[in-house]
Amino acid sequence: MSESEKMRAAWFSTFGKASDVLSVGEFDKPAAGPGEVLVRLHTSGVNPSDVKKRAGSFPDLLDEGPVIPNSDGAGIVEAVGAGISDNRIGERVWIYQAQFARRFGTAAEYVAIDSSRAPRLPDSAGFDVGACLGIPVMTAHRCVFADGDIDGRTILVTGGAGRVGHYAIQWASQAGARVIATASNENDREACISAGADCVVNHRQKTFAESVLDATRGELVDRIIDVEFGSNLATSLEVIRVGGAIVTYSSTVDPRPELPFLQMMYKDLVVRFVIVYAMPETAKQFAIADIARALDKNQLQHRIAEKLPLEEIARSNEIVEQGNIRGCVILTID
User: Which domains are seen in the chain, by residue range?
Assistant: First the structure.
C-alpha cells in the first residue's frame, strides 16, 4: 500500500497490561462504506469500558484481528459513502459507539462509521469536549430520563464529581429536579455545587443515609443514579421511596452484590442498568437531540482531567485504571 493509504493509529492484538499490549504506528486507513462517513479525528476519549476491553473483558474481541480501541471521539467529516449527502463533508462531528460490535475505534487519525454515530458538533464546542459526549454524557442522560419526568423530583447522584455523575447532576437540575450529590472532599463538593447540586453529602461517612435524609427533611428520594451499586445498595434501600428507581452504570468495588430480594420487592423498586451500547435507539436519539440543544446554548460544564498525545495511550489507560481522577481523559491526534 502507498503511504497515502496508511494512517497513524493505536491498537492491541493481545489482551493484557496497557504498556505491554498497546502499539502505536501505521495502520490501514479506512474508507467510508455505504451509509458511513469518514472522519479525520482530532481527539479520542478513553473510558473505563475501553480499558476493560483491552484487559480482556470481551474474550472473543480479537478473534478477527487487532483492535483500535476507544468508542468516543471528535473530528471533521472528510468523505462520505453511498447514500450520504456530500453536504456532510467538512462538518464538525462527535463520535460515539465506534468500538462496539466492530474492531476499529477512535484511537487513530481516521474512523469510518455509520453516519448516525457522528452527530454534528457545534463550532462553540472544542474537539476535546466532543470526545466527552459519548459514554459520559449519553450514559448520564439515560440514567436521568429513562424512568419518566423528573421535574419536582428528588434525585440522589452518587459520585457526583465523576465522569458520569457530573453530567447527571446537570441534566437533572436543569430538568427541574432537586439534586443531592455525594462527594468525599471539598474540591469534589464544589464541583457538584457548580454543576447544579442543591446539597452535597459525604458518602464515606457512616452517617451517609442519615445525611441524605437530613438534606430531604426526612423525605425519601425518588431516584438514585449510582456509580457503585453493590457498595451503596444498603444505603440506597434506606433512602429510596416505594416505587422509586435505582439506576446504575457501575459496580466496580462489589461486582457481584447480593440482592435482598424481599426488601426490594416490598418497595416495588425499578432497578435499571445502563450502558450506552445497549440503549434503545430511541433513547440514543433523544440524548443526541438534548446534547445538541445544550451545546448550542452552552448549558453543559465539562471536566477534562488529562489530555495526552496518541503516543501516550498506554499512560492514558493507566490513569483511567487508577480510578482516582475526576473528569474525562482525552487523547489528541492533531
Answer: 3-132+302-332 (3.90.180.10), 136-277 (3.40.50.720)
| pLDDT confidence of residue 4 | 62
Sign of the Cα pseudo-torsion (250, 253, 257, 262, in order) = negative
- Decide if pLDDT at 174 tops 50: yes
Strands 178-182 and 199-201: parallel
Question: Rounded to the nearest 5°, which phi and psi values hold at 216?
Answer: -95, 5
Rounded to whole angstroms, how far apart are CA atoms 154 and 309? 41
Q: In 10 A of CB 259, how many CB atoms?
A: 12
**Contacts (Cβ under 8 Å, ≥6 apart) of 74:** 41, 42, 43, 92, 93, 94, 95, 121, 127, 128, 129, 130, 131, 133
If you ran DSSP here, which 8-state letter would residue 107 be given? S
Nine cell digits for residue 31: 474508507
pTM of the model: 0.95
Are the beta carbons of 103 and 46 closer than 8 angstroms?
A: no
| Residue that has been written with the C-alpha cell 491498537 in this structure | 11
Rounded to 5 degrees, what angle do the CA atoms 51, 234, 151 make?
80
The residue whose grid cell reads 455545587 is: 193
**In 3-state terms, what secondary structure has residue 212?**
helix
- The residue type found at 268 is D
Read off the pLDDT of residues 262-311 as tens digits, 9 standing for 90 and up. Answer: 999 999 999 999 999 999 999 999 999 999 999 999 999 999 999 999 99
Give the separation between CA 19 and CA 86, rounded to whole angstroms: 40
